[in-house]
Design brief:
single chain; mainly alpha; 2 domains; elongated; HIG1 domain-containing protein; Rcf2; transmembrane
Length: 88
């Protein structure tokens, strides 16, 4: 179980260090997946497919930004807790 925690901590640290890259990668994968999904639906016009892909990617970007904010909040709380414990 300790190995899983270190892997989660490693991922969390990478996300904290590369917030914009993480959001950008999520956006790119979201729009790619959405375009692939919409292209498999032949009864839609191309413009509608592109609009749907953009909307899906935009929603995923907002979720990624909210997730980055949560990670940042958690990181600041953990840092403050460490500083408080080191003072005692």
């Amino acid at each position: 179980m300790a190995e899983a925690k270190t892997q989660v901590e490693t991922i969390r640290k990478w996300v904290v260090d590369h917030k914009l890259r993480t959001v950008g990668c999520l956006w790119l994968s979201g729009i790619t997946g959405s375009i692939a999904y919409n292209w498999s639906r032949p009864n839609m016009k191309t413009s509608v497919k592109i609009i749907h892909a953009r909307l899906h990617a935009q929603a995923l970007t907002l979720a990624a930004l909210a997730g980055a904010a949560v990670v940042e909040y958690y990181d600041h709380r953990a840092e403050a807790k460490r500083a408080k414990n080191s003072e005692q």
